[in-house]
Design brief:
Helix content is 66%, strand content 10%. A four-stranded antiparallel sheet has the order 2-3-1-4. The chain contains 13 helices and four strands. With 311 residues, the chain is of the alpha+beta class. It starts with a helix and ends with a helix.
């Protein structure tokens, strides 16, 4: 890459507008993240997974501030994972980590802690933590910690998935809460919190663009495709196929649609060919014409840093 192109890329990545939105997402994400850690998990007697869970354990044992401890734990992880993660993600994540630590130690101590049911605390801790981390990921940043360590291990052990690595590390941290908090329920609540946060992250990052894929096997492919186009306003991909048992030629139609449009697709198929074989399967994300260009740009931003790190 030439110096001119490198300078141009850096200017595009650090435009005032980009920095403004990065900062806005960092602040919003940090508020949610701090609420999950401090307000709900801080007084509930369990440790969620990750570095924040370790920080909560130390806070319980010796009263060290959660945000500061999280930031200190992240420093060696940053040094270890520098080559695996990449410079740009580290720079963005460093900003995110400092902001989230400030909210944890400076602002949220003035917010009352939740002192109710532990199960509710674990659920809402996961909801707020997951929402906060999802906002970080959307802007190509991270809260650091286990994310960095998982990417480093992934580079050295490519046969392992990042999800499995993260799960194993989180489980170790959660189990440490058993002797610290003194009951097995602390482990169960920690698992619940981590599970909920994972679901929330997936729903925010992938569920917004979730859709339905209709798979239709019919002998009237063109007629069915035309009818779907008329009623549901969706395009159809037609594949010629042959029945494995009967040897009869058939058409297989693939139609990506929203969940609300699935009913229209179903009616169009039944009206055209009552003998058609129809399946609907849920898709986590749909890209392409008619499904929103904004999500494509967002996911390109989110995943480009990860891919750069593990190459």
């Amino acid at each position: 890459m030439s110096n001119t192109k490198l300078i141009s890329d850096l200017k595009n990545k650090f435009k005032p507008k980009v920095l403004f939105w990065d900062l806005l997402y960092d602040i919003a994400g940090s508020i949610l993240y701090a609420a999950g850690i401090y307000t709900f998990a801080g007084n509930a007697g369990f440790a969620p997974g990750g570095v924040s869970g370790l920080a909560l354990i130390l806070n319980y044992l010796v009263g060290l501030p959660v945000g500061t401890v999280t930031l200190l734990f992240n420093i060696p992880l940053v040094l270890i994972s520098y080559k695996a993660v990449g410079k740009q993600l580290l720079i963005k994540s460093a900003k995110t980590m400092v902001i989230s630590s400030l909210f944890l130690d400076v602002i949220f101590p003035f917010v009352p802690m939740y002192d109710g049911n532990r199960l509710m605390a674990s659920i809402y801790s996961g909801v707020f933590m997951g929402a906060g981390m999802a906002l970080f990921y959307i802007r190509g940043s991270s809260s650091g910690g286990i994310d960095f360590l998982a990417l480093t291990i992934k580079k050295k052990k490519p046969h392992m998935t990042i999800g499995v690595i993260t799960l194993l590390i989180d489980l170790v941290v959660i189990l440490l809460g058993w002797p610290v908090f003194g009951d097995v329920d602390s482990v169960l609540y920690g698992i619940a919190s981590t599970g909920v946060s994972t679901i929330v992250i997936d729903k925010i990052l992938y569920g917004i663009g979730a859709g339905t894929l209709a798979v239709i096997v019919t002998g009237k492919g063109r007629e069915v495709a035309a009818r779907i186009g008329e009623t549901a306003r969706r395009g159809v991909t037609l594949i010629q196929a042959r029945g494995g048992y009967t040897g009869t030629d058939r058409d297989v139609l693939l139609c990506a649609c929203s969940k609300a449009e699935a009913y229209l697709v179903k009616n169009a198929v039944i009206e055209t060919d009552e003998e058609a074989f129809l399946m609907f399967t849920e898709t986590s994300e749909v890209f392409g014409e008619g499904f929103g260009e904004g999500r494509r740009k967002r996911f390109k931003s989110v995943h480009s840093q990860t891919e750069e790190g593990v190459q």
